[in-house]
Amino acid sequence: MDVYEYYPMSSYGHNPIYTALIMRLQFVFLLLFFNVSLSARNVDNSTLLILEYIRQGYIQYGLEELNRNATMNSLSAQYYVAVCFENGIGVEKNLDQAFRMYRKAAERGLPDAMYHLASFYRNGVVVSCDSFREDEWLRRFNQKGGQMTLPDLVSIYNEGVEHPENYALNPNGTNNNAQNQISIETSPLAKKAPVPINIVKTPPANKPVVKENKSDVDLNIPLNQKKQENAFALIIANENYHDVAAVPNALNDGTVFAEYCKCTLGIPQSNIKFLADATLNQIRRQINWLCQVVEAYQGEARIIFYYAGHGIPCESNGSAYLLPVDGYGNDISTGYQLEELYTKLGRKPTKNVVILLDACFSGTNRDGSMLYSARGVAIKAKPNSPKGNMIVLSAAQDDETAYPYKEMGHGMFTYYLLKKLQETKGDATIGELSDYVSKEVKRQSVVHNGKMQTPTVNVSSSLQNSWRNMKLK
Asked: 74, 168, 185, 366: most buried, per Cβ within 10 A?
């Protein structure tokens, strides 16, 4: 048979000369396809060719070559091996290994690896939550241009999955040699036929992104030179839920409130913990951290707990729960009970604990629709009793909805909370904050949503006579 005889595309790997020629031609187009003006600095030609093998369906071979290139100190290959470990592409998911490989590539100057490393520190994955290290890697990422520079392995892999006939073949033509035949069953990198990977995209460094058209409270955030060394803030912003509807603008709420805590209220960055799209275990872990702070400071700590996201009620007794992003709207066991939060934070003495809840606990979404379709009516959640020196400001009464302020890109409660902090440079008393937020939210909710939203204040017995004159700074 003449070596130049036509072979269909589905027979790649069975004619080595034809395959080699085609793959080299594809590589020329590959350079253009991947926009080398961005990626050539960080992707070597060998790794680019491997990515094209994976795109064509030679997944097992491509993953083995990536691993080989990584051991030969290829920067881009080390990064892609980390992506495989993080997402379980061809290997068992191993976040420890992913972290190590990301750190190795980040220390060698790869911005894409810095992006992922910062998210590990922010979310407390494998390592402890560390805002200082997170900010350090974010700073380095931004110094490199603040953009991802490498082609996305997940999308390339998913394209390759559509060519299962090539999965275990070697595109360089060694498949007909029994000794070199790659076996799906014996491959250390893949034990079964590949399936698409579904990855939720995150913004650079896994940081929530403030919307491009910023509102007035997102700009000109007042600066306070005086630091509150004994003040601590835990901020949870849950927007992208796995099983129920998203909470519009929750990430923007949490991001901007964190800036006000740092800039306007003078809370040191190291004393601020920020969780975006937090799971139940992440919420538990950081609340435990806050409780340890309270115990260690022996009555000298000032605590701010802020939450934007879904709340759910217990249908049998009306108890209120914060809903993590991995929780279910019809299963309170997947939520975090407010009563538990109040008890934990109120168990030990503090200067004060201020809890801010931009959530409703009636079983509705921010748009007023039902959170879980099986529930037909809103439920009136049972009021919880604050403990210790605690003040709770909530976005709505027990059976109301906490609405968004769409034009401003925030929850309505959070927008007016930030507005008052901006106008007073953080010097408003909690009584003034409460009065202002309650008045403005009630007015604007009727105008914009046609329904009442009434922010509420709930105060522990020990602060009944003093809470109105207290301040957040």
From this structure: 366
What is the chain's mean pLDDT, rounded?
80
Indicate if the alpha-carbon torsion angle 259, 265, 269, 273 is positive or negative.
negative
Token pair of 72, please?
């030969």
- The Cα 209–Cα 377 span in angstroms is 34
- pTM (2 d.p.): 0.58
Distances (CA, A) of 226 to 212, 235, 262: 30, 21, 11
Match 């560390």 to its residue by tokens. 130
Q: At what angle do helices 75-87 and 59-71 cross, to 10 degrees?
A: 130
Determine the Cα–Cα distance for residues 358 and 242; give it in Å rounded to an integer.
20
Q: How far is CA 243 from the centre of its chain?
A: 16
* Whether 466 contacts 459, CB under 8 Å: no
For the chain, the structural domain boundaries read 9-166, 208-469
Check residues 100 and 188 and name the one with the higher pLDDT.
100
Q: Which two tokens stand for residue 243?
A: 């099983």
What does CATH list as the number for 9-166? 1.25.40.10
CATH topology of domain 208-469: Rossmann fold (3.40.50)
Structure tokens given for 218: 């997102």
What Rg, from alpha-carbon coordinates, does the chain have?
27
Q: 64-78, pLDDT tens digit by residue?
A: 999 999 989 899 999
